[in-house]
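Exercise 7.
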Amino acid sequence: MNLRGIVSVSGRPGLFKLIGQNKAGYVLESLDEQKLKIVANISNTKLASLEDITIYGEDDELKLTDVFANIAATKTAIPDAKADGNTLRKFFLEVAPNHDQEKVYASDMKKILTWYNFLKDMPLFTEAAPNAEEAAPKVEEKTEAKPKVAPKAKAAKAPTAKTAAPAKKATMPAKRGA
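Solution. The predicted structure, written as tokens, is:
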């Protein structure tokens, strides 16, 4: 799943696609039906990329993309995001078994399920994330590479009496009103 460029904006509901950045802030496009474009101010808006979000774990942090993949692969019914905390906790024990139960709140689980339900039918959710090999530009191999020879450096001329800069004397400013 490729969540690159999908962000959550503090203070705004829903998810956004990061289009670019200008002097005023980030240019975002809403992922819902409205296709609203906004500019989020850099100084007072926090963006969280879904690709970089992690969930507290008992040993290591869990990536949100891994939790989404586990939710997609689960055989049990996905609970509604508005379900009670106990139902959400049981489900998360299945899809994120090593999450820290004291630090991951029911509100976090609701938000993750809301995001999952919103993204699951989108084509970018089903796309594979680009691998390092695919993302790197291909370099054509040359059969015979000729070594480049650096041009010879010109010899520097020694300064003569005409071209040498005169030495400046250090002077102190005169005191006024003395």
